[in-house]
Structure formats: structure tokens, C-alpha cells
Amino acid sequence: MFSILRSMFLVFIHLFRKKVTLQYPEEKPVLPARWRGRIILTRDPDGGERCVACYLCAAACPVDCIALQAAESADGRRYPEFFRINFSRCIFCGYCEEACPTYAIQLIPDFEMSEYDRRNLVYEKEHLLVDGEGKYKGFNFYKVAGLAITGKGKGEGENEEPPVDVKSLLP
Amino acid sequence: MTVMGLVVIAGVLAAVISCAAFLVWFERRLLAFFQERYGPNRVGPFGVFQVVADIIKLFFKEDWVPPFSDRAVFVIAPVFVVASVLMSFAVISFAPGICAADLDVGLLFFLAMSSLGVYSIVLGGWASNNKYSLLGALRGAAQMITYEVFMGISLMGVVIMADSFNLKKIVEAQEHLWFCVPQFLGFAIFFIAGVAEARRIPFDLPEAESELVAGYHSEFSSMKFGMFFLGEYLGVTLISSLIVVFFFGGWLGPAFLPPIAWFLIKTFFFIIVFILMRGSLPRPRYDQLMGYGWKVLLPLALLNLFVTGAVVLVWQN
Known about the structure:
Number of helices of chain A: 4
Largest sheet of chain A: 3 strands, antiparallel
Oligomer: heterodimer
Shape of chain B: globular
Number of strands of chain B: 0
Order of helices and strands of chain A: HEHEEHEEH
Structural class of chain B: mainly alpha
Distance between the termini of chain A: 68 Å
Shape of chain A: elongated
Order of helices and strands of chain B: HHHHHHHHHHH
Number of domains of chain B: 1
Helix content of chain A: 10-25%
Number of strands of chain A: 5
Radius of gyration of chain A: 24 Å
Largest interface: A-B, 14 and 12 residues
Radius of gyration of chain B: 20 Å
Strand content of chain B: under 5%
CATH architecture of the domain at 27-137 in chain A: 2-Layer Sandwich
């Protein structure tokens, strides 16, 4: 009997507590920086497309929502001729971002992408490609010193920057 | 039947039904507050028009009668619950002169009407031809029989002290002392029985949504479901106002507010207690409910009746 009255009293006290609800459209939630939301394609610091159309993201995608077609530019670099993500299928798992060798495809903290028409959820390359570098500043895939292969030492290839000395403590 | 009588009847009907409609919003809002949420606060100021939105939604839902059901009974069942509760409101005196039917057996009339209310549950559950509905209906019938026995007995103490079955006379007998003091046990028992009567959590076993889908009204949709819904909130209002009439001096109160205001304030207080109980108490097991009714509350109610009778006898001699 006492415990019943006590639990009723404790519940009543909650009337005066601060509400935990966020009044969403008026108050925006604070999203963590690693939130997996809308997918973007980023550019390297020089403004070129990072994506090399390797199809790894499409292969990693568990719901097959990524479609792309590789093409080659005049200077021999690969780029996607089209890049299409069907967000009505996307489950925002982030596997594409994990699979990407060039940090091109990234998930950002934005989830406000509702549409009245389902077709509008299919994003083409012009919708996905942004001007910035996204989460990985200063990374340029073509300039990272690769591996030593026959006829080329580490960091000696075209455009390559000298390799990072991982044993140095200097920045 | 005078014109004044008709006005009172219309007024009571309108007030009671709009109060029940208001409660739909109020309960959701208050429950939300108890759970540190906001509840419905979008439609109109503070969300008070949520109930209008709900009603519009209910009206546009498909009014489906299951092909395997007993059609005539299925259709009539939801009407019973609302009608029986509304009939009970006839005998309540809200203030001096505001009473639809000032019956000398008002208290018995209320007990009879609340017993009729269980027919809607049993008929609804039976006509649905669905095992969950039938289980809910069986539970409802057993619960009503159990709790109605000592609901009546717990009120007999009040009757002895007021020397009348008339609700107006009962209120007038509390001029000097509200019956909740000498009849505290009776009040506690009536309150518990009233919660069971209104089929509210923690005594909502007939509909126990975690075990029986929705119990006796599983198969009901659209406004038929709305009627059961309305009946539940009318029941809450009825039990609250009866608690006020029997134990808390009805319309009596300091003179700076009109009598009807005192009645409404007290009733509202008990409605809030009902909602608080819903927000805080778990549902008992079925055998616990039955055992508690027959083994604890019935002897207590009888004891209360005997002691009250003895004391009144000694007092008068």
C-alpha cells in the first residue's frame, strides 16, 4: 500500500521536471560529427574530383543503392561518368565510406532529406558532388606517397609527395 | 417535465460529453508530462483541438463489421456503454437545483446503471466472435461482479450516515463534516472499486493490451471504437463526480466560489488522480485482482458497514 502511494508520488514529481523532448522543427538536434546521414562526393584540395570510379562503394553497398559508370579523362584519370544513389533504398550503414580508397564518398550529419515524391530521392552526381573536402581536409589521393614498385621508389612517382616519416616525432 | 428540466438535461449532457472529449486531450497531455514529454501540443493552443482531429480521424476510418461477427449485437454493444454511463449522470446533483432527475433512490439507480454497463463489454466481446475479445469480456464480467459487490456495500456506510439514498440529501448531510473523514475506509474501497468500474489502469484487465490485443473491443473500429473510448472517459468523469458527491461534500465549499465551481474543482482533482494512477501503477495479475477483491476488500467493506451501523445506533440512543 505504501509503495503504491510512493510510486504515485514519485511519478507526480516528474510533472515539474524539465522535458526531454526536443520540439524538432523549431529546435534542431545537435548531431555528432560522425553522424551517418546524407551521402556526398567530395573534391580534393585542388578542386578535382576525388572519386576514381573504382566501384568499391557499389560493391560494398548491402542494398545496392549506388550505381555508377567509370570513364577516363584526357589525362588518363578515372572519374565517374554518372554517379547515382537511390536514397529510398539507402540504409545509411556507412559501408561505402569505409570501402572508399580515396575518401571521396562521405556521410555527413544531415538527415533532412524528406520528399513528397519517391523519385526525388534518387540523387544524381550533380546533387551528390560538393565543392569542399568534407571530413578529410588536405587529403589528395594522387599525391600520397604510394608503395615502392619495380622502377619506382616510394614517393618518387609523378605528383607524389615525399613519404611521411612515421618514426619522426616532428609534425 | 418543465422547460427548466429540459434545459438542465441538455446542459448536463453537453457538459458531460464535452468534458469527456476534453479528457481525451487532457489525459494524453498530463501522462506526457508525467513521462517528461510534451504530449499533443500542435493542434490549436496547447493542442486542445487534438480531440477534434482525433474525432475527424475516427469518422473517416473504415467502419468495419467483421463478417464472422454477430452483426446486430456487434453494432448495438458500443451504444450500451455510453448510454448506461450517461443515464447515471441523470441522478447526480451538480449544484443546488442542477440535477436532471432528483430520484429518491439515486444511489441505487447509479449502481443499477453501472451494472448495465458491463453488458456492453460482454456483448461486444461475445459478438466479435474472437477469442481475445471473448477472454476480455469474460474478465470484464468477472471483474464487474467482484467489484460491484463491495462497491455497493462501501456506499452503505454513507447511506446510513446520510439517512437517504438521494444524492442531493447525501450532499446536504455533509454540511458540517465531509464523509471522507468518518467514512475513510468506505472512500478508499469505493475509489478502488470505481477504478475497476471505469476499467482504468491498474484494473483494465478486460482490455489488457499487452495480453489480449485490445480485449473486448479488439474488433471494433471507427466510431464504434470511439464510443467505447468515449464511454471510458465518461466513466472516469462519473466515478470522480460520485466520489465527490458521496465523500467530499459535492458542491459544498467556502462561499467565495459558486457551488458548481466547487463541484467541478473537486471532480477535476479526482480525474487527475485517475490519470496519475494510470501513469504510475502496473496492472495486477488476474488472480491477484480477484483475490484482492474477494479476500481483502469485501471483508473490509463489510467491516466498515457493521462498524458504521453500530456507531450510528449507539449515537442515536
